[in-house]
Amino acid sequence: MTTTPKKTHIQMLNEVNYNSIEMAPFRVVSVGSGNWGTCVAKIMAENTRENPLLFNQEVKMWVYEEEFEGRKLTDIINEDHVNAKYLPGIKLPDNLKAVPDLLEAVKDCNIIIFNIPHQFLEGILKQLKGNIHPKARAISCLKGLRVDENDVELLSDIITKELGIHCGCLAGANLAIEVANQKFSETTIAYPLPSDYVAGDLDDTVLYTLFHRPYFHVHIVEDISGVSIAGALKNIVAIGVGFVDGLQWGENAKASIMRRGLLEMIKFGELFKPDSKVATFCQESAGVADLFTTCTGGRNFKLAYRMAQTGKSANEIEEEMLNGQSAQGLITAKEIHELVKNRRLTDEFPLFETIYQILFHGVSIGILPYMLENKWSVSKPNYSG
Amino acid sequence: MTTTPKKTHIQMLNEVNYNSIEMAPFRVVSVGSGNWGTCVAKIMAENTRENPLLFNQEVKMWVYEEEFEGRKLTDIINEDHVNAKYLPGIKLPDNLKAVPDLLEAVKDCNIIIFNIPHQFLEGILKQLKGNIHPKARAISCLKGLRVDENDVELLSDIITKELGIHCGCLAGANLAIEVANQKFSETTIAYPLPSDYVAGDLDDTVLYTLFHRPYFHVHIVEDISGVSIAGALKNIVAIGVGFVDGLQWGENAKASIMRRGLLEMIKFGELFKPDSKVATFCQESAGVADLFTTCTGGRNFKLAYRMAQTGKSANEIEEEMLNGQSAQGLITAKEIHELVKNRRLTDEFPLFETIYQILFHGVSIGILPYMLENKWSVSKPNYSG
To answer: Phi, psi (5° rounding) for residue B243?
Structure first.
């Protein structure tokens, strides 16, 4: 089995040919208008209005056009200033402009925020290729990784590779509806400065000004790998927590699964993206805080909880609960299993592997403590002892 | 203001005069028989029975004698094998022997487990002084620190200082009733080998054999400072989480407070016990996992939750809820405030300080995001960015 060597983020960036960088005022577009997409666009529009020297006031938001209650969704957003379909009840700033045409939306924009479901990324990137501002920078709000049996790719690296633009990412303990209601939360933006950075370019200060709100605190790091890995693997951990909670094993057991999950996330970073930082997992909102929120509810937790309570299979519960949608953690658990198995690293991930076996091979949840115990010493390098 | 220089753990140990060390079979005593004391004694008795070459089978448990339903509590434990008052419904091994006399209990024992409420420690140590096995080793299951306005002392160091014996500690995400019911959990034991260690002495293997069960997984580290600090400061964080949950700010806000709390715990270690390890806070059961469980319930969380819901003061809620008992986090918040203020380090702990101000000076909970935002850059060295 040979693996094609993948380029590093930095190698890819070095191939991007920038000249001098567009200065302020920056023009911002959100590619995506689901609940989180609309919510982040709202935040940006609040900030562009307050910072007219740094940003063009109007924030554009690409909206996949659809009818809602007899009107076009873009009309509803632009006239009523509410995304009645995906974020009902939340007043949007009137400098947020819905645009149904993707290329029209991104035209002239030098800050592009990606906030669409994972499965649409490829198609969107194809349409955008060659049609964006040549000096644009990007931030991906998409969760996750592209994993195959040989390797792991960051979604931000895919954006960089396809469009030739530098791309960071944003993630954190950010349930969209809470942020939309301006309840206090924190987020993490991973944005290492590009190698062709010049004064006046997008940097920490510009990002902070664009995203930070009194109710939405931003912390900026460089570790895109750590943020991306945490965003993907947390969903597997949430399944494990759902299992033990469904069996009513109590708070200690839930905390144990979260802790072991955190250690395996760190280990995964260490083995597959050695540039990832332990501190990102342990101390950032996109790490430990997002793990907390993901493990206390959400689709992955609930699927596992119901499996434990009813004894039904993952497939049966998915059909009952999710109207044909998949729980992301289920897919990720399978992808990670195949990757680590292929790399002969299964023993490094006893929690992830056991969750995979429970999900896909009918193994009993009750085996979890035994599996973690047998593998107790394996992850020892992660521990402090 | 001058501060008396405190001896380090190692300095104190070097003053202890051991000769050769008592070998197996070790004789074990639990000083304390509350719910956690009884639960840990039960675990040890299960393990001593399975390892007769390493341990004397009988585990003694000092019980403060009292009447319960017309019988002596020690009689109930020794005849019915249940601690009907403090851990009702849990069958205890019959090799666990309740002893009402403290000195009789510890006699000949070379492993002494301390598991009593903090406030009784001083009195117990006075009685024990000069009356214990001269080569005994100790493990403290007491939570917390002794804090005054000048410095912080580990409870294990107090035990070492008073009795002249090496002392580690045990803590983790361990709600006693769940562990007693043999639901899966993990714990952390901090036990650096003493400077006079000789082969056959208490070590990681002996500790693992004494405490590890299929349902109670043990991980052993050296960082007593980190485990002790986490055990004390988590209670302040739980108050903060109770505040924001009481105001129904949602899961994001709770995760933010936990994350900021974790960072301030690490910062506290860095400033007051520089031998503490970041990994203990972030990756051990006694760190992040215990923080999870403490922040999802318990006395400190509930007190704060009720304050937020009712607008009443901490004192009023304490009187209503706790029957005259104090929430430990309330005391710790005050002690830590005084210490860091005296050391002019208040700015390093915006979360702890704001919680103190809310608890004791009627400051509004709503100020929390503002306080954390203003102090945003202060803790930056803790972050990975």
So the answer is: -60, -55
**Does B214 share its domain with B231?**
no
B104: how many CB neighbours lie within 10 A of its CB?
12
Give percent of chain A with pLDDT exceeding 70.
90
Q: Is A72 a catalytic residue?
A: no
Residue A3 lies inside a defined structural domain of this protein:
no
Distance from CA of A69 to the nearest CA of B (A): 30
Task: Report the gap between the CA of A70 and the closest CA in chain B (Å).
Answer: 34
Interchain CB distance below 8 Å, B259 and A283: yes
Same domain, residue pair A15 and A32: yes
Tell me the CA distances in angstroms from A303 to A85, A239, A314, A316, A324, one per residue in order: 25, 7, 7, 10, 13
* A252/A211 same-domain check: no
Using 50, 70 and 90 to split pLDDT, how confident is the model at A362? Answer: very high
| Interchain contact B149–A (C-beta under 8 A) | no
In this structure, what CATH number is given to the domain that contains residue B43? 3.40.50.720
A195 and A326 share a domain?
no
Cβ-nearest to B178 among A173, A252, A282: A252
Same domain, A216 and A240: no
Percentages helix, strand, coil for chain A (3-state, rounded to 5) are: 50, 15, 35
CATH number at B339 reads 1.10.1040.10
Domain that holds residue A242: 230-382
- Is B2 within a domain? no
What was the ipTM of the complex prediction?
Answer: 0.90
Closest-approach residue (CA) in chain B for A372: B217
Q: Check A178 against B252: CB less than 8 A apart.
A: yes
Q: How many folded domains does chain A comprise? A: 2
**B87 and B153 belong to one structural domain:** yes
Residues of chain B found within 8 Å of residue A370, distances taken between Cβ atoms: 214
Kindly report, residue by residue over B255-307, the tens digit of the pLDDT. 999 999 999 999 999 999 999 999 999 999 999 999 999 999 889 999 999 99
Taking only the tens place, the pLDDT of each residue in A204-224 is 999 999 999 999 999 999 999
Question: Considering the domain boundaries, does residue B196 fall inside one?
Answer: yes
Contact B183, B215 (CB under 8 A): yes
Task: Enumerate residues 6+ apart whose C-beta is below 8 A from A275.
Answer: A8, A9, A223, A225
Does residue A4 lie within any of the structural domains?
no
Contact of B367 with chain A, judged by CB distance below 8 Å, is answered with no
The backbone torsions φ and ψ at residue A162, rounded to the nearest 5 degrees and listed phi first, read -75, -40
Catalytic hit among B42, B97, B234, B267: B234
Q: Which of residues 55-84 of B touch A (CB under 8 A)?
A: none
Residues B332 and B254 reside in one and the same domain? yes
Cβ proximity of B52 and B43 under 8 Å: no
